[in-house]
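Collaborator request, handled under Task 6.
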Amino acid sequence: NGGPRVENESNNEEDDASFWQEQVEYTPESRIEVHKHMEEKRREKEQTDKRTEKTPKEVKFFAKDGRPLNINQGKLDFNFTDDEENNSFLFDLACPKYLDTSLINVDLQTTYVRVTVKGKIMQLALPEEIKPDSSKAQRSQVTGHLLLTMPKLKGIVKPKNTKAKQHKEQKTNDSGRNNARNPTAKLEVDPSVRHEVDFGNIVREKSRRSQDAPQRTEQTCVDKEQSEDFVDDPDVPPLI
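Structure tokens returned to the collaborator:
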């Protein structure tokens, strides 16, 4: 039985191919040489991979015309909203809940927003220019999300609750018209007619009236004597 033989001086692909094609006796020594050759190739591959990792891939943040590009290295979910009522943009980035805030870096520019989360870059191009100095960043303690509020550089802030305000004004005007149509008449009392009530006089007046009232007399019933023409009829029931 034949087997491959190791040549320690072979460092290129041609030498490696010739090593595996050469026939040798299948002995314990040949098996040891094959094992050494495979171990050497494995180490060379690990060193090559380490050199590749140390040289990170260059990230392009802008196109050739200077336009900012959209980048999401961390594959994070996000929500971008145009808040027309407050004339601003809202950017909600789903950062990990238990990630320390010190590992989050925010860079706001007039045309783009860049957030670095644990070394991973998230960049988003904005449709309009913003005011970086007036923007604010908030972190939710419940979900861990990062919310960026970015006011627009141009635009007019729309008034809030316009319909409710118009409805309130219309209701006030209707109420005023109803009061004009149905005026309420109030009775005015002449101040000279007013007098204070003396509760002491009320008690004395009541006592005086009680004395002037006629006294009730009690009457008692007295049996009258029967007349001579009285006839006692047994069929008539007695009077009670």
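The cover message to the collaborator said: "Residues 9-52 form one domain. The mean pLDDT is 76. Please let us know whether this matches your experimental observations."
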